[in-house]
Design goal:
By secondary structure, this protein is mainly alpha-helical. About 70% of the residues lie in helices and about 5% in strands. It folds into 2 domains: about 60 residues, Winged helix-like DNA-binding domain superfamily/Winged helix DNA-binding domain (Arc Repressor Mutant, subunit A); about 140 residues, Four Helix Bundle (Hemerythrin (Met), subunit A) (Up-down Bundle). It starts with 12 loop residues before the first helix and ends in a 9-residue tail after the last helix. The relative contact order is 0.13. GO terms for molecular function: DNA binding; DNA-binding transcription factor activity.
Length: about 230
């Protein structure tokens, strides 16, 4: 277990502890089965136990931690069922978002997306997988911001934690970064052309990529996945 994990994001300490732990779980710094206590979290972040307790509650809700009777709190294994369910709901939300964005996006929003694509290419050249995933998340959020509908992002964020774990494991062997960037470029091309059908089709192809990587990863790393009937 790491001695120190940096706080994540901004805002209240509880939120920063949550973001820091979430990132550590997604990237495998805290692998499935790792036992965690409020005391551990307090020491890793240098904070009191109260914000750690708040973060634990949110991480249980996100499916990243589980509380086992008489065994304490542990990092949960990846649930293939939750990955598939989260992807299904995310596709429905983002397909609707990108259609609306194609009809309403302005030049400033397109410039922000272009800058994101340039940063993604830079991360790929540096083999910065964690950095790329952060940029990927930011890319999707930019599209939602373009239609001023941040509640849609909150809906996605609350259900994609298991997806993010698989996405991190898929890089770069199963899902090469340049392939994912090319998919992002197709989405932006549809938005720039104000072609809602093309933008939606590109978004759906992109979000279904995880379905092709889920099986191979589960076969290669079965110890990371829950046994589900």
């Amino acid at each position: 277990m790491p001695d120190h994990i940096p706080l994540g994001g901004e805002g209240p300490i509880g939120r920063q502890v949550y973001e820091g732990l979430r990132q550590a779980i997604i990237t495998g710094l805290l692998p499935p089965g790792t036992a965690l206590s409020e005391k551990d979290g307090s020491g890793m972040f240098g904070v009191s136990r109260q914000p750690v307790r708040e973060a634990f509650i949110k991480l249980v809700e996100a499916g990243l931690l589980q509380v086992l009777p008489q065994r304490g709190t542990r990092v949960r294994k990846i649930s293939r069922r939750q990955v598939e369910q989260g992807r299904f709901i995310r596709e429905a939300v983002e397909a609707a978002v990108v259609r609306l964005a194609a009809e309403n996006i302005d030049a400033a929003a397109l410039q922000r997306l272009d800058r994101s694509l340039a940063a993604q290419h830079d991360a790929a050249r540096r083999h910065d997988h964690a950095g790329f995933l952060a940029l990927d998340e930011g890319f999707h959020r930019l599209i939602i911001e373009a239609i001023d509908c941040l509640p849609a992002w909150s809906t996605i964020e609350n259900m994609k934690a298991q997806m993010d774990r698989v996405r991190y494991l898929s890089l770069p062997d199963v899902s090469p970064l340049e392939m994912l960037i090319a998919q992002h470029e197709e989405i932006v091309a549809g938005l720039r052309a104000r072609d809602a059908d093309a933008a939606e089709a590109a978004m759906r192809r992109h979000l279904r990529e995880i379905l092709s990587s889920l099986g191979p990863i589960a076969e290669r790393r079965p110890e990371l996945f829950e046994l589900e009937g």
